[in-house]
Amino acid sequence: MLKKILIGIAALVVLVILGAVALVSLVDVDRYKPQIEQTVQDKLDRKLRFDGKLSLSLFPSIAVALPHTTLSERGSETAFLSLDRARVSLALWPLLSGKVEAGTVSLYGLRATIERHADGTTSVDDLTGAPTPAPGAAPPQSAARAAAVPFEVGGIDLVDAQVVYHDERAHNTVTLSNLNLKTGRIATRSKTPVDLSASIASTEPPTSVDLSLKAVADIDLAGHAFGAHELAAQARGHFGADQFDVKLSSPGIVVDPTRAIGEQLKLLATVTGAHQARVDLTLDNLTAQDVNFSIEKVAGELDLESAALRQKSLKASLTGSVRGDRRDQDVVARFAAQMDETQAAIRLNVHDFSNPHLGFDIDVDRLNLDRYLPPPAPAAQGGAGAGAAPAASGADQKVDLSALKRLNLAGEVRIGALQVHNVKAAKIKVGVHAAGGRLEVAPVTASLYEGSLSASSKVDADGNRIAVNATLDGISIEPLLKDLMGKDILEGHGGVKMNVTTAGPTVAGMRRALGGTASLALRDGAVHGINIAQKLRDLKGTLTGASTQAQAASSAEKTDFSELTASFTIRNGVASNSDLLAKSPLLRVNGAGTIDIGAGSLDYTVQAAVVGTLAGQGGAELSSLHGVTVPVHLFGPFTALSYQLDWGSLARQAVKSRAAEQLKGLLGGKSKQGTGSQAPNPADVLKGLLGK
Questions:
Q1: Which of its termini does the chain have fewer beta carbons within 10 Å around, N or C?
Q2: Contact 336, 318 (CB under 8 A)
Q3: Are strands 100-108 and 151-167 parallel, antiparallel or unpaired?
């Protein structure tokens, strides 16, 4: 009996095998190509073409092999996708029991081109588009979980694939080439090795990257949990002129719907080229439970060497932690940072993940930005050209404030001591608020140069508009100007007020568009570059040989004042003044003129009058010039100011004054002729005035 059963089973197996062989031999799947191609044409309006025969195999699995195949763009003959060959197989016996078990899915020489048009649409919208769920409809996720179908794939083998992405809107082309992916068995629950390599290149900006990734993937589709163990990823390439090498590693990360656990994630990046940089960042104990997530420890170090830095190198370290709540869409991070001599405490808060709002609070003990800002450009040599240099160099410096449109932030920065562009300040407090393309920096307060600063500014990305309102009170102006400009041009204590606005596409354009008001009020100081009192003393021997020769200003000379006030109106980058008043026991100085901020030059005339005598300053020598006005013309670029005294005018005024005094004395002498004294001869008086 058993023998008959075995013979029957053997006969059945032979019949099944013979039937399968006959099915494969007699059924020509290639004849279905026209129907398949027509179906794609009807459904997608795309042309599908098989350049060769389709083949079918049944044992040990159902397998379909494709020849060289192309799929066109929608409504076009242009190829959208092509592949050299492909093979997909399904195990027969598991399929009969309702389990999908495929062999290795192999694709060779895949090529695809995706277009993004200027209007934002893409050439694959018809393939990727999905109907929008009705309002209030339950998401399909729960149904997908409940209806999870067990499946198994022997592996994925993707060889030499390439995808080209043309973006007309961004004027950029990104090419993913040499894409190779190899995996082991993939099932509803499985662990499989993953080996990925690819090259990425873009045209804007010019970038080329070689990628590689190896890991053991931990997959649980039924539980929607995923993990990676022994992760090692690397990206090497160039960005512009700089070469970079980024490595990412982790012993293990697991993510599921209710929790995420990461032992450690380590990032090591190096950059070589115009800048030499090394970044070492480690994240320890990454956890997520329900709606809460955290990174218990963040530790990072930065080493940077660059010719653009004044001190050529920078070292910084960072430690901290991160906590968040997915339900409230809130993330809070706290960090302690050290950079050379600088210590900082930083608190960051991000709220609303779909439209992030950033809050921050930063405390810095001391910060010398001059360590890190580029060295100043060499000064231009002499003449008017030196003054024009800043405007000329700024003409090519474009101002683009469009990044403000994406900012949504608010916070405060406090700095104990700050140095920037050689200007020093202490107890700085700066409030910042940005939203809708507008940035407001207010209030700004600081102590500097024996006084205080109170300021605010507003920046609008629309039109590149900037407004600044600042008041300096009780400051010592000489060290401020010396640190800021490197020149001794003015000294004294007092205040400066400024309320200005500007707009423009470039730095030079903004200088030319500057408008507003400014004022100056100083006491007990001096104007450097000319000693008017000394020049008047020198007048004694030059009245008869008067000239108007220009002379270079000298910081060794100065004109003292007990009080100095002036107000300015600024239009189109030119500050005009007509009410300069400087007082001293010896002189009264009035002035008027213009300061061309855009060109960095001055055209100004002061009128200095002798109003008293002061023996300690040689005032007695000037008694004969009492009431005489000294015209002084200041002109030229800020870097090479010159002045010119109108000696001819001085001589004429002096002669008139002395003649009047002498004639007055002569007339007085005539009234005393009765006393026996002899009156001077008028001709001799005039000769004495002219030095003859």
A1: N
A2: yes
A3: parallel
- Beta-bridge mates of residue 452: 447, 473
Structural domain boundaries enclosing 317: 205-376
Dist. CA 277–CA 583, nearest whole Å:
57
Per-residue pLDDT of 645-659, as tens digits, reads: 766 666 666 666 665
Q: In angstroms, what CA-CA distances link 336 with 263, 296, 349?
A: 22, 14, 15
Structure tokens at 623: 């008694």
My answer on whether 505 and 547 are in the same domain is yes
Mean pLDDT, rounded, of the chain: 79
d(CA 71, CA 112): 9
**Spatial contact of 300 and 266, defined as CB atoms under 8 Å apart:** no
- Cα 49 to Cα 43: distance, rounded to the nearest angstrom: 15
> How many residues are given for the chain?
692
Q: What is the DSSP string of 578-645?
A: EEEEEE-SSEEEEEEEEEETTTTEEEEEEEEEE----GGGTGGGGGGGTT-EEEEEEEEEGGG-EEEE
Q: How far apart are the C-alpha atoms of 653 and 627, rounded to whole Å?
A: 9
Residue-level pLDDT at 651: 62
pLDDT digits (tens, 9 = 90+) for 281-316: 999 988 877 788 889 999 999 999 888 788 888 899
Over range 340-368, report the average pLDDT: 93
- 87's CB contacts (< 8 A; 6+ apart) are 63, 64, 65, 66, 104, 105, 106
Tell me the mean pLDDT in the region 488-511: 89
- Residues 304, 228, single domain; the answer is yes
For the whole model, what pTM was predicted?
0.67
Please give the Cα distance from 32 to 436 (Å, whole number): 59
Q: Which pLDDT band holds residue 16 (cuts at 50, 70, 90)?
A: very low
- Residue 8 belongs to a domain: no
216 assigned to some structural domain: yes
Is the Cβ–Cβ distance between 395 and 508 less than 8 Å? yes
Distance (Å, whole) CA 250 – CA 419: 41
Q: Quick: pLDDT tens for 46-93.
A: 888 888 887 766 555 677 788 898 988 888 888 888 999 988 877 655
Give the per-residue pLDDT at 394. 41
The Cα 190–Cα 184 span in angstroms is: 10
User: Is-contact 619 642, C-beta < 8 A?
Assistant: no
Counted domains in the chain: 3
- 545: burial class by Cβ within 10 Å (0-12, 13-18, 19+)? exposed
Residue 135 pLDDT: 47
Same-domain pairing of 357 and 451: no
- Largest pairwise CA distance in the chain: 180
486 and 604 together in one domain: yes
- DSSP output for 125-170: HHHH--PPPPTTPPPTHHHHHHTPPPEEEEEEEEEEEEEEEEETTT
Q: Are residues 181 and 217 in the same domain?
A: no
Q: How far apart are CA 475 and CA 158, in angstroms?
A: 72
